[in-house]
Amino acid sequence: MENVNKIVEDIKSGKANLELLDDRVTQNKKLDFVQQSGFEKLCEFGNDETFKALYKKEGKYYYAEREYCADNAQTGSCEMQYDKLYQVIL
Q1: Rounded to whole angstroms, what are the CA distances from 12 to 17, 34, 45?
Q2: pLDDT of residue 1
Q3: pTM for the whole thing?
Q4: Residues 43-68: tens digit of each pLDDT
Q5: Pairing of strands 17-26, 60-67
Q6: For residues 60 and 19, is the Cβ–Cβ distance under 8 A?
Q7: Does the domain at residues 4-89 carry the CATH identifier 3.30.160?
Q8: Taking the mean position of all CA atoms in its chain, how far away is CA 74?
Q9: For a FRET experiment, which of 43, 76, 83, 85 has its CA 20 to 30 Å from that of 70?
Q10: DSSP for 10-45?
Q11: 30, burial (CB in 10 Å: exposed 0-12, middle 13-18, buried 19+)
Q12: For residue 45, what pLDDT is reported?
């Protein structure tokens, strides 16, 4: 089992090898792609502007990110979220 703290630090510093699996703009309150069965949330490490979490499924690690208020810069509103799902390549 990989060290979760090391993976998180690599993601934060930009050193992690990430493969983008999915990205979408949504109004859903939940991250659709990690609501599927089998995703185990290991930790969260976001801030006020972005939700970030590390998940594990079938021995592989996944990083999910949600940018809150993705439409704020263009519309001034806060109705859309920008979600991304990456596989962490070890």
Answers
A1: 12, 20, 9
A2: 52
A3: 0.84
A4: 999 888 889 999 999 999 999 999 88
A5: unpaired
A6: no
A7: yes
A8: 23
A9: 43
A10: HHHHT-SEEEEEEEEEE--SS-GGGSSTT-EEEEE-
A11: exposed
A12: 94
- Report pLDDT for 82: 85
Residue 47 has φ and ψ, to the nearest 5°, of: -140, -165
Residue with tokens 């962490």: 88
Largest interatomic CA distance in the chain: 44
pLDDT tens, residue by residue, 1-47: 569 999 999 999 999 999 999 998 888 777 767 877 789 999 999 88
Map out the domains of the chain as residue ranges: 4-89
Q: Minimal CA–CA distance to 62: which of 27, 2, 48?
A: 2
Instruction: Give, in degrees to the nearest 5, the angle at Cα 69 between 19 and 43.
Output: 50
Q: Which residue has the tokens 């940018």?
A: 67
